[in-house]
Design goal:
It is a single chain. By secondary structure, the chain is mostly beta strands. 6% of the residues lie in helices and 44% in strands. It is built from seven helices and 88 strands. The strands form 25 sheets. Strands 2, 5, 6, 9, 10 and 11 form a six-stranded mixed beta sheet that branches. The longest helix is centred in the C-terminal third of the chain and has 27 residues, at 1021-1047. The radius of gyration is 58 Å and the shape is flat. The two termini are 69 Å apart.
């Protein structure tokens, strides 16, 4: 849900109206006085403080002030307690010396005057606030019969302003009020009917006087309610107001309060209607338990007849109140200041309404207009004064007084005759910023006499602005209803009259609106989880936004769990108090946007309570409960569990479930159990805690209702029958002394049942049975209270024996080099001696047909179903001899084997060669060696060799292929490219094709001097000696470094490093050594230690290796592998040859 702010149109119109009506004469120009601040007409003062009567005015020259008191001149110089503030007309009356404030109660009026005229204030009535004491009086206790009505009178002393009345006891606790007991508008306490609980000795009425902040208390009233005789119920009768008709007058704009309080038993209910229209919904409210109808800001439309009705079950009563609305004068058009140039014409208008109609009286400079000096340019016509061809020196202040019996209005308006060239009052180069698509107001406040004409220009001033989208106001303001980006720029306003011209420049910037693109979304979150509200905002780049978050319209709680970020709000570990509406508010200096989302916090329901068992029966009971709090997630169902204290104490089992809308369940029970029940509630979050268990409910014993289940008969030996069953639980036993009667007979042979009774077991073995014959079996439960129901018989079989015959007609069909199919015939059914489960084929590889391989394989077997007479043997070895036999099997085991059958598998493709390697390399040739595959799978017919070049970026060249004889074990490839890497693919082949290939890579050498036999470098004596020499050399260097450092000197290597800087590792020359064959282990760098020039040993030696020495430009290996050379400062790319080594 998104809450978009309004476009501010109303505020704009109010501002524009103010700008249009405000006619301000610059203060450096002559102007008559204007009253700017004055005290209210009715001014109630605190007698403990000095009296301040305000009167402020402006004018040029600055006005002087005088006062009248009760209509006559008030000479403040004669009263030392009265002073006037400097440059002001405000009076200060000092009563701190003990003077009484009531001595200054009077009607005051201020006059501000200069040489251009006089302005008058309102008539200010000064009255002292009063808070008189209650008269001392004692009240006898009031005795009232229960059910009668009662009125306790307050009658507070008259104060100024009137006091606020309320009832409390002597502990300053407000007395509870209700539809039966309530306080009236006059302060009295009304009882529609009294109850015994109304008896108390401390009914106290208090009066609080708000102006002096004092509280007065009436003497306590004691009420004693008795019940000597019953009081009959009665229909309502109004206590307030009396009779059936009344009237009330209210002034426009004030508050209307209508009251009806009724006596009656039972307590009456009060309702209101308006007979002559509708009660205003927004301005009306029912208070004091519907006994008071309150209408605020009364208008003429609120006049009419209002009816209150009070009713109970014995009847009703009505009262009609006729409301009349009168009005003190109020402005329709208040007079406004008028600035005229000589010989101009103007009008001052004074229009007011009221009821009765106000009387309009005009004054000039405080004198009635008829007593003022005559002016031929002035003409009075009722509520207007018309000025024609005014002359210099005609400036004055005119007063309009509109009055009726309910009050008056007094307004000053001056006529100022001036001849002034235009001046623009708006600050120059002012920048206005406005949001796109909103109205823009560019001010051009001006003054001049005659009134200047204002025109507007944009940017280059190529033409005067006119028409859409522009609106030109009388005060000079330029309005653009809907601002667009093209409206931005420089604007010039020009003011002209016959005395001159003035102009001003302003600037308009149109900004992109601030919008919430991704508002927060409604969230339902479990308690103690985290929740995230997003608020992604788009705004004008030149505006700086600020984002705040609100909860339910107020500030976020002061809690570290609330983390507000620029575009999100995170609440960690939410609680139920965090639920509510969260609003993201994004503000810039020009606009704002907001969006809201609701957070609902859900949790597991509380455990049900108040479990109660009703309607007990032999095998049933009614369970009721009270649901717990749902925590904002509706209950889906209730789970009822039980504990059997007799058979499984402490174990709770599920009994039944009921929908979440129910709070009762009819439970079906078993005999001979001690039940306790508990209830769990389930909602969308999960289960509640279990309720407190109910009281225990016990059922009486009975005969079993059921027999054991899962009854079966089978044999474990060839001459027995094992009868098994699932025993009854303690709850199923229905009583003590549980036993089982086991019954059996051979199906179709025996008519009588053989039986035995057993207890505390779940099987019985019958011995001496024929092999694999069917039996009828039954198991019946019984206890001390009788047997269970008649059981149903099940069919079982006695034990099986091994099959006595082997499958016949066994034959083998070889399908290919790795797959053969076996065929056989079924064994006779009588020889199975049980249930035939299938056939097994046992086979093994006896030997290979190749003369070099006589491998004997392990025996394998494949099983097939009882209906099968053929099966396939997979994964055979090619070119081999196999043998097999077939057996039949049942659950007891396998029978005798068939005669052994032998068969041969044909040739297949060979396996991978035993090895394949590069044994020697030269400038343009490589020698390759290999050995035949271990798994030849036939007679080898030869080998296939394929090879291609490989560059440093792993791109490959054309593939060459050559066939080799089967008796070859090596080959030398000639005419190869020198210093080139080759990749080889080598495979053996039979008549069935080529087998999988081995791959190898090798590099031809750069120089013949680099040729060396391919050996494992790590096992060569010269390499071990070289490494030992290097280690010894490094140790000597470390010792020398240590000695040199202690002496503060330098050692040769250090000097070379200082001379050459930090040397880079150098590559080997192109005529350096390489090796033809290598392994991954050979590619690893050989680690050695090197002491850095600083004399310290680094923690990580990963950069110290033989490569650092081998790559040095001056470093070489002799043919005997000795190390020569020293550090070098030269650097360059590493050699590809040495890379192949390391």
């Amino acid at each position: 849900m998104m809450d978009r702010p309004s476009d501010g149109r109303l505020a704009l119109l109010l501002l524009l109206g103010h700008m249009i009506t405000a006619l301000e004469v610059p203060l450096d120009l002559p102007q008559p006085p204007t009253i700017t601040h004055q005290s209210p007409k009715e001014y109630i003062v605190d007698p403990r403080e000095n009296i301040v009567i305000h009167c402020e005015a402006k004018g040029k020259p600055h006005p002087s002030f005088s006062w009248t008191r009760n209509g006559t001149h008030f000479d403040i110089d004669k009263d030392p307690k009265v002073t006037m503030k400097p440059h002001s007309g405000t009076l200060v009356i000092d009563i701190s010396g003990g003077e009484k404030a009531d001595a200054y109660e009077a009607v005051y009026q201020c006059t501000a005057h200069n040489q251009l005229g006089s302005a008058l204030s309102n008539r200010i009535i000064i009255r002292q606030s009063r808070s008189p004491l209650w008269s001392k009086e004692k009240f006898s206790p009031i005795v009232a019969q229960e059910g009668q009505s009662l009125v306790l009178h307050c009658r507070p002393p008259a104060g100024l302003p009137p006091p606020i009345v309320f009832w409390m006891d002597n502990n300053f606790q407000r007395l509870p009020q209700s539809r039966r007991v309530s306080q009236g508008l006059n302060g009295d306490l009304y009882f529609s009917n009294v109850l015994l609980e109304d008896s108390r000795s401390n009914y106290i009425c208090y009066a609080r006087f708000p102006h002096t902040q004092t509280i007065q208390q009436k003497q306590p009233i004691a009420v004693h309610v008795i019940d000597h005789k019953p009081v009959d119920e009665r229909a309502p009768v109004f206590l307030v107001p009396s009779g059936s008709l009344s009237s009330q007058m209210v002034l426009r704009g004030e508050v209307l309060e209508l009251e009806c309080i009724a006596d009656g038993l039972p307590t009456p209910a009060v309702s209101w209607t308006k007979l002559s229209g509708e009660i205003p919904g927004r301005r009306a409210s029912l208070m004091n338990f519907n006994k008071t109808l309150r209408i605020s800001d009364v208008s003429e439309a609120d006049a009419g007849e209002y009816r209150c009705a009070a009713g109970n079950r014995l009847g009703s009563v009505h009262h009609t109140i006729t409301v009349s609305v009168r009005a003190a004068p109020y402005w329709i058009s208040a007079p406004r200041n008028l600035v005229l140039a000589p010989l101009e014409t103007g009008v001052i208008t004074c229009r007011a309404r009221g009821h009765p109609k106000p009387h309009i009286r005009w004054s000039m400079n405080g004198l009635p207009i008829e007593d003022a000096p005559k002016d031929p340019s002035r003409k009075v016509e009722d509520d207007s004064i018309i000025f024609s061809e005014v002359q210099t020196g005609s400036s004055a202040v005119y007063q309009c007084n509109a009055s009726n019996q309910h009050g008056y209005l007094l307004a000053n308006a001056f006529v100022n005759v001036l001849a002034e060239p235009p001046r623009v009052l708006t600050a120059p180069n002012k920048v206005y910023q406005v949001i796109e698509n909103r109205p823009a107001l560019l001010e051009c406040l001006f003054f001049g006499s005659p009134v200047p004409a204002v025109t507007w220009f944009k940017d280059s001033r190529s033409g005067m602005l006119e028409g859409d989208p522009y609106v030109f106001h009388k005060n000079g303001t330029l309005e653009i209803h809907v601002s667009q980006a093209v409206n931005g720029g420089k604007y010039t306003c020009v003011a002209r009259n016959n005395l001159g011209i003035s102009e001003n420049h302003v600037y308009l910037e149109v900004k992109e609106p601030t919008r919430i693109l991704r508002p927060p979304e409604y969230r339902v979150v479990q308690r103690n989880r985290d929740v995230l509200f997003e608020c992604k905002v788009k705004h004008d780049p030149s505006l700086i936004p600020s984002t705040s978050w609100l909860k339910d319209g107020g500030e976020l709680p002061d809690d570290d769990r609330f983390r507000a970020h620029l575009d999100s709000l995170t609440i960690r570990g939410v609680t139920e108090s965090d639920a509510g509406t969260y609003t993201c508010v994004t503000n810039t200096s020009l606009d704002q946007d907001s969006a809201s989302a609701r957070l609902t916090v859900v949790g597991q329901p509380d455990a049900p309570t108040d479990l109660e068992l009703t309607d007990p029966g032999a095998r049933s009971v009614q369970l009721t409960w009270t649901p717990g709090h749902e925590h904002n997630s509706a209950t889906k169902k209730f789970l009822i569990q039980y504990e059997d204290g007799l058979h499984q104490s402490g174990v709770w089992l599920n009994l039944t479930e009921v929908p979440g809308t129910k709070t009762t369940a009819h439970l079906k029970l078993s005999p001979y159990a001690h039940y306790s029940f508990r209830v769990l509630a389930l909602n969308g979050v999960g289960y509640s805690r279990p309720s407190i268990p109910s009281r225990q409910y016990r059922t009486n014993p009975a005969a079993p209702d059921e027999n054991p289940s899962e009854v079966k008969g089978h044999g474990t030996e060839h001459n027995n029958l094992v009868i098994t069953w699932k025993p009854l639980t303690g709850l199923q036993a229905n009583g003590p002394g549980l036993q089982y009667t086991v019954l059996w007979r051979q199906q179709g042979v025996e008519k009588d049942w053989t039986s035995v009774s057993v207890a505390n077991v779940s099987k019985f073995v019958v011995s001496g049975t024929p092999t694999f014959v069917p039996y009828e079996v039954m198991v019946r439960a019984q206890n001390a209270y009788g047997p269970g129901p008649e059981p149903a018989a099940v069919i079982g079989h006695s034990g099986e024996d091994f099959p006595s015959a082997a499958p016949g007609m066994v034959a083998v069909v070889v399908l290919n080099s790795t797959l053969a199919e076996v065929h056989w015939e079924h064994v006779p059914a009588r020889s199975v001696r049980g249930r035939l489960q299938g056939y097994k084929v046992h086979y093994r590889r006896e030997r290979s047909l190749h003369r070099h391989n006589s491998h004997h394989g392990e025996q394998r077997s494949e099983s097939f179903g009882p209906n099968r007479t053929r099966g396939k043997l997979p994964d055979l070895h090619p070119f081999s001899v196999y043998s097999l036999h077939v057996t039949a099997f049942n659950s007891r085991g396998e029978g005798p084997a068939s005669a052994t059958q032998r068969y041969e598998t044909p040739e297949g493709v060979p396996g991978v060669p035993s090895f394949f390697r590069v044994s020697a390399s030269d400038l343009d040739s490589l020698t390759l060696e290999w050995a035949p595959p271990h798994e030849r799978n036939g007679r080898l017919t030869g080998y296939t060799l394929r090879y291609q070049t490989v560059n440093s970026s792993h791109d490959v060249g054309l593939l060459d292929e050559m066939d080799l004889l089967s008796n070859q074990s090596s080959v030398t490839l000639h005419n190869l490219h020198h210093s080139t890497r080759y990749k080889f693919y080598f495979s053996a082949k039979t008549q069935q094709g080529s087998g999988p290939a081995l791959t190898e890579e090798a590099v031809t050498i750069l120089h013949r001097a680099m040729v060396s036999p391919q050996v494992d470098i790590a096992t060569q004596g010269w390499f071990i000696g070289l490494m030992s020499a290097i280690a010894l050399l490094i140790l000597i260097l470390l010792i020398v470094c240590f000695i040199k450092r202690n002496k503060g000197g330098k050692y040769p290597v250090k000097e070379k490093e200082d001379a050459h800087g930090d040397p880079e590792i150098q590559p080997m020359k192109e005529d350096d050594i390489t090796f033809g064959e290598y392994s991954e282990e050979d590619r690893k760098p050989l680690r050695v230690s090197r002491t850095p020039s600083s004399g310290t040993v680094p923690r990580d030696g990963s950069e110290d290796s033989l490569v650092e020495y081998a790559d040095s430009g001056d470093t070489q290996f002799n043919e005997d592998g000795s190390f020569i050379g020293q550090y070098s400062g030269r650097s360059g790319p590493p050699s590809p040859v040495i890379n192949s080594l390391v």
